[in-house]
Amino acid sequence: MRKKRFPRIALAFVAGTIFGISLLAVVSFVNPAPPSPAPITPDEAKTLVTAYRNTAHGSPYAFKVDENMFAAMKSLNDLDKDIKEFRIYLGIENKSDTLGVVVALNKQGRDDLSKPLTRTVSQHSGMCPPVCDSQSPINLK
């Protein structure tokens, strides 16, 4: 007597469908890892910066981060590895001393004031323009 294969085939089909839908759901809702920083040539950099400058965004198109700001970002990240993004506000104290205020951002890209804020001396940093390398081929029009 021949065994009925229909129930096994139907069961395999249903199990495969459920597995496939589950896999699709997992893949669809997992955020992909951001691309790693990739080395580029100076010509590629100039092309990218020029394209940005030609958009409505225009200016500023760069930001010089000095070692104090970099150290502040690293310090905040060392305290809390969940911090992935920062915003740097420029401030002035005593009417002339430029400061950087480094703020961690939350997953929505908003200032996360529940995390520590860092104040840095910012003598050699700022937005470009005006803090630009006027001799850099990337900056030349």
What does this structure look like?
Helices cover 35% and strands 18% of the residues. It is built from three helices and five strands, in the order H-H-E-H-E-E-E-E. 10% of the residues are buried.
Chain-wise SSE layout:
Blueprint: H1 6-29, H2 42-53, E1 62-64, H3 67-79, E2 86-93, E3 97-104, E4 118-121, E5 126-128
Antiparallel strand pairs: 1-5, 2-3, 3-4
How much is the radius of gyration in Å?
Answer: 26 Å
User: Beta-sheet strand percentage?
Assistant: 15-25%
**β-strand number:** 5
Distance between the termini: 85 Å
Helix run count: 3
Question: What share of residues is helical?
Answer: 25-40%
pLDDT averaged over residues: 76
Shape: flat
Largest sheet: 3 strands, antiparallel
* Structural category: alpha+beta
Stretches with pLDDT under 50, minimum 5 residues: none
Encode the helix/strand succession as letters: HHEHEEEE
Spatial order of strands in the largest sheet: 2-3-4
